[in-house]
Amino acid sequence: MTTQPDTPRPGADTPGLTVAAVARRLGIAPATLRTWDRRYGLGPSAHTAGSHRRYRPADLARLEVMQRALLQGVTPAEAARLALGPGSAPSSPVLLSATPGVADQARVGGSVLRLGGAGRRARGIGRAALAMDAAAVRRLVDDAVTADGLVPTWDTVVRPVFGAIAERWESTGAGVEIEHLVSEAVIAVYGARALAAPRPPAEVRPVLLACTPGERHSLPLSVLAAVLAECGVPCRPLGADLPLDALVAAVQRSAPAAVVLWAQERRTADPAAIDGLPRTRPAFRSFTAGPGWESTPASVTHLGSLTEAVDTLCVFLGVTHRN
Questions:
Q1: Burial profile 78-116: b = 16 or more Cβ within 10 angstroms, e = fewer
Q2: In terms of Cα–Cα distance, which of 282, 274, 268 is closest to 299?
């Protein structure tokens, strides 16, 4: 007669997960798990003689709470308290910093971005971006837009994150992939809001948004297009690095009320792009935007910020600013 092996009882003798397996499941580095274990007591509880300690389902559940809290902008110490729960005893001694908060301070080249003074939403996006968690970044940006609106989210949440990424790159030469990930998430969220905006009145002439020739930083124009769409302003975003002849053709074919030329860098802020714009009937008004422009002709208005751009264009077009 064949003897069948006993079915292991759940949670009893079932081997748990290794550090590497848990790290892969959560999408974080094994070193981060070891830090959480050492600093906050969020380590594996299963131990078999002669083998490494293993993470059980309850341990994994606590780590998932920790990770979700961090992505919402909670400090690591507070996230650990939430993960352990009221009255919970850590599985290993919790090591406290001599100075409260020192362990949680941001480091440019470390596991967090330098976001001193930024809100919890920006901190959450920064952590998700460093973890290369694109879905979490999109979700957090979308949550911020839903709660605060397109313009406040850009000014107080997204821009601080990009500033921290730029500082990291200047200090370490790393982080381009983080910038691209956050950019794609912002474009996706703001683009969805633009598509969902009500159709503008037929009598409102469009605004043409274009990067100057050689300029590849088109994200701010995508953000501006979404905000104007919610205001009822039709836009024609033309993306990055638009050749001058293509810009001229776009103006002639779209009969815009306004043309906004974006230049992120001085080398791409070429006055020839303004001088090369055609004369049309009806006429349009030219605007520049972006830090690349040091000076513009007297007939051209420079838009210094997203708020200024939206306010100026809405007043010029005679539409109500709804953001």
A1: ebbbbbbeeeeebbeebeeeeeeeebeebebeeebbbbe
A2: 274
How far apart CA 111 and CA 29 sit, in angstroms, is 10
pLDDT of residue 286: 94
Distance between first and last Cα of the chain:
77
Contact 246, 234 (CB under 8 A): no
272 CB-near residues (< 8 Å, 6+ apart): 244
Average pLDDT, the chain: 81
Per DSSP, the three-state class of 25 is helix
Report the C-alpha gap between 71 and 137 in whole angstroms.
9
pTM: 0.68
In the numeric block, which tokens belong to residue 172? 């370490």
- Does position 11 have pLDDT exceeding 90, yes or no? no
